[in-house]
Amino acid sequence: MFNLTTTNSVKELAIRNLRCLQSETLEADCTVHSHFKIVGESMCGENVAGNYSSVVLGKLRSNLRLVVGMSAVARYETDYLVETLESLINNASPHGLNVTTIAVFLADLQLTARNKVMELIKKNFVNALANGHIVVVTVPPMRYPKLTGLKRNFRDGADRVYWRSKQCVDFSFVWGWASRVDCVYYLHLEDDVISAPHWLDTLLRYLDTIHENWFQIDLTQIGFIGKLFRRKDLLRMASFHNFFYQEMPVDLLQPLYLNLIAPDFPRPLPHFPSLFQHIGKKSSLKGKKQLVVDKYFNSYREYMIKENPPCNAFSSITSNPANPPSSSVKMGGYFWSKYPPKLSDYFVVSLVKPSVVEYLVVVTGNKFHPGDYLYNGYLEVSDKAIVQTRTGVTCTNYKTVAAFDNGIMSANLTSFGRIQCFRIKISAVQKFWLAINEFTIILPNTFARVGSQQVNVADYVKEKLKQRHSMRQ
Predict the structure, then answer these.
(1) What is d(CA 175, CA 180) in angstroms, rounded to the nearest whole number?
(2) pTM of this prediction?
(3) Cβ neighbours of residue 374 closer than 8 Å, sequence gap 6 or more
(4) Is the dihedral of CA 233, 234, 236, 237 positive or negative?
(5) pLDDT, tens digit, for every residue of 142-172?
(6) How far apart are CA 187 and CA 249, in angstroms?
(7) What is the C-alpha to C-alpha distance for residues 340 and 345, in angstroms, rounded to an integer?
(8) Contact between 46 and 180 (Cβ < 8 Å)
(9) 3-state DSSP assignment of residue 30
């Protein structure tokens, strides 16, 4: 049950303490709540060489673009940590990992439980630890505040109050530690999630192109998973959650904090599709089940397991601003029209460098817009460009390849020689909008990593298409 009185009192106290934290000196009316300022300057703010948070396993690097942080506890029934870390590592490119570190914070207060988690990581991630892709961080249990006999807000039982209060402190320790790391961004996850393929490249590219003003980006739409912040904003946030740790759960404290610290910012900026999915069915709170999943998780990219060769996309079909033609040829996003396509409308993808193409897969419609697929259309290819424009090239001498079948077109294109342009032509009036989910161009002898294996991309795609066909029969 939501307690409005508690919320208002927390908000009132928070306003006073945030003023203290922002002031150069501790003013007279701040002395009663000076703990908030002390926490902000020391307890949450020590660097890895300090007396509190420290790296106990792995090699912390400098000049990072991103730190991914999570608090982990030993689970004695079902443990998800290895699956989480494997997903993050295996679905990231070497380039992305070179500028990223995953920090696992050991959140158990008992030494045996901490050692259990640490041994699990040492056993399964030898190379990631040696390369600095994973580090393990701890803080002495004596640094935790009082965790028993706390306020019983929201009519929560003692076990739940302990669990949610400790979680606030755990998160504040991780954020305080990360605030001293040489990085630009911080991403907060939990120890029971999986990532979308190419999540890291998608995220880094998104950060390069984002123009909106933001304080928090939600890379998932459930719980406190996939929250992205700038490193420079972490210390004050850590101080706030540490100070109010017993008042309410972290996912209720955070909106209060955002309203106080960034009232002029838009609400957390959502990223669609979501890059992470919650897989933990059993919570770290004994007896608590967590069956919630993110319906926006990027599980629909079936065939694009490697970036397309450099190309441009443009169309005669007006698109939604958030779903331009270029989205369909990149790892994240998709093209979505603003209106139903008309007869003779087209969608063109032009290669920057003409190339022999071993295989092409175009998928229209997706789980967000299942009815917005191409009902009547066909694909053409051209080897001849006649006009170079700002958006790409205009080609001539098009040859028909194949018609779309239930919104999908796939074909081996090696017999067409070097290809400059691909063109989708609409061959009949359509009642529904058009979503082009992926436009996958596979050059000869292209390999990519799927899980822990290197696979031939064309062979992988053909097998996936065969499985899809069998399921439809």
Answers:
(1) 9
(2) 0.68
(3) 364, 365, 404, 407, 424, 426, 430, 434, 436
(4) positive
(5) 888 888 777 777 677 888 888 888 999 999 9
(6) 19
(7) 10
(8) yes
(9) helix
